[in-house]
Write a structure and sequence with these properties.
- The chain is 76% helix and 3% strand.
- The protein is mainly alpha-helical and 312 residues long.
- The chain has a three-stranded mixed beta sheet.
- Helix 2 runs antiparallel to helix 3, helix 3 packs parallel to helix 7 and helix 5 runs antiparallel to helix 7.
- The longest helix is centred in the middle third of the chain and has 34 residues.
- It holds the Pfam family 7tm_4.
- It is found in: Cell membrane.
- Keywords: Cell membrane, Membrane, Olfaction, Receptor, Sensory transduction, Transducer, Transmembrane, Transmembrane helix.
Length: 312
């Protein structure tokens, strides 16, 4: 890798081309990052502390919260520092590490969402056998598989990008190390590498998205067979939060990655990246806490018990 590259560090352009927006972006991003951290930590801690939430669905949700905590922490603190600093450099190794963790956490989230969809299929379509089918062992295997898949599959994409030659301009026109802006800096013909990265990204997103699509087709067909309106509403309410989260995640990620380089526009893509790297992780705990009565009740129990302990 050292022999092929003359570049030892990159410069994050970020939002330097919009100096009038930097203070506003810093304030908004900082607030959303704090909300995201507190919301996701609160959900994880609540699931861990409240025995009523020790179920597969909430175990999966707590892992999704953990992914969101890690995902935002990989990008947002560096972005906030760069918004206030004139020194926006990142080392070659640091950039590779940031891209690796971004890809691995994004891949993990894809497979976690697929596992959550499968959980809802069993709960709605096989309610009487749900406890047997979605047992603790299977739940742990699904979560472990999601994390391991993320850590391993992202190695290939990261290696494809950072074995390219970077011998010219070292300014990344983005606020974090991402595949599209890095490919624009590579020397020589990168067509084959772009195709390989695109195909790898397509497979990583396509497999879990097909599983999710198949799961929700099955869920919707089962819900439509329920005769009572109250029963249909209750069944749909158990998976509506996940549908919103899935739409936010896959909608923004697909718009960013599943398109050719010719349609890459740096300025618009920066704001699109803000959507899936900052806004979506901030909305996820809000969506789950607002739409889940169990989490609301558990939060009140945890807060009340802690206040009681403090008074003692």
């Amino acid at each position: 890798m050292e022999a092929k590259n003359q570049t030892t560090e990159f410069v994050m352009v970020g939002f330097a081309t919009h100096p009038e927006l930097q203070n506003l972006l810093f304030m908004v991003t900082f607030i959303m990052y704090m909300v995201s951290l507190m919301g996701n930590i609160l959900i994880s801690v609540t699931v861990w502390l409240d025995p009523a939430l020790h179920t597969p669905m909430y175990y999966l949700i707590s892992n999704l919260s953990l992914v969101d905590i890690c995902y935002t922490t990989v990008t947002v603190p560096k972005m906030l520092v760069n918004l206030l600093s004139q020194n926006r450099t990142i080392s070659f190794t640091g950039c590779a590490a940031q891209l690796y963790f971004l890809l691995s956490l994004g891949t993990t989230e894809c497979f976690l969402l697929a596992a959550m969809a499968y959980d809802r299929v069993l709960a709605i379509c096989n309610p009487l056998r749900y406890a047997v089918l979605m047992n603790k062992s299977l739940c742990v295997q699904l979560v472990a598989g999601a994390w391991v898949s993320g850590l391993l599959l992202s190695l290939g994409q990261t290696s494809l990008v950072f074995t390219l030659s970077f011998c010219g301009d070292n300014r990344i026109n983005h606020f974090f190390c991402d595949i599209p802006p890095l490919l624009t800096l590579a020397c020589g013909d990168t067509t084959r590498d772009e195709i390989a990265v695109f195909v790898a990204g397509m497979l990583i997103t396509l497999i879990p998205s097909l599983l999710i699509l198949g799961s929700y087709i099955h869920i919707i067909s089962t819900i439509l067979k329920i005769t009572s309106a109250q029963g249909r509403h209750k069944a749909f309410s158990t998976c509506s939060s996940q549908l919103i989260v899935i739409t936010l995640f896959y909608g923004s990620a697909s718009a960013m990655y599943l398109r050719p380089r010719s349609s890459y526009t740096p300025e618009s893509d920066k704001f699109l990246a803000l959507l899936y790297s900052v806004v979506t992780p901030t909305l996820n705990p809000i969506i789950y806490s607002l739409r889940s009565r169990d989490i609301n009740r558990a939060l009140r129990r945890v807060i009340t018990s802690n206040i009681f302990l403090l008074k003692m």
